[in-house]
Amino acid sequence: MTEQTGPGELVAAGEILTMLGVSRSRFREIQRHPAFPRPYAVLTVGSIWLKADVERYIAEHRRPRLADGDDEA
Description:
There is one protein chain. The chain is α+β, with helices and mostly antiparallel strands and 73 residues long. The chain has one domain (10-61). The chain is built from three helices and three strands; from the N terminus they run βααββα. It has helices at 13-20, 24-31, 51-61, and strands at residues 10-12, 41-43, 46-50.
């Protein structure tokens, strides 16, 4: 029997900025994209998202970023 521990890992805007590698203003634009997940909850300190939802959005809608030192082909 598995124990239910909650909805999964949660992330706030600061973590998502790092995940996306973008500025706060660019993140606000990305949030308006129809495919960007809706927040799991909106708290007085801000919105929080399910990390799995954000990771899915990144995998489906963002181009991979080049690692430092990689040259564009």
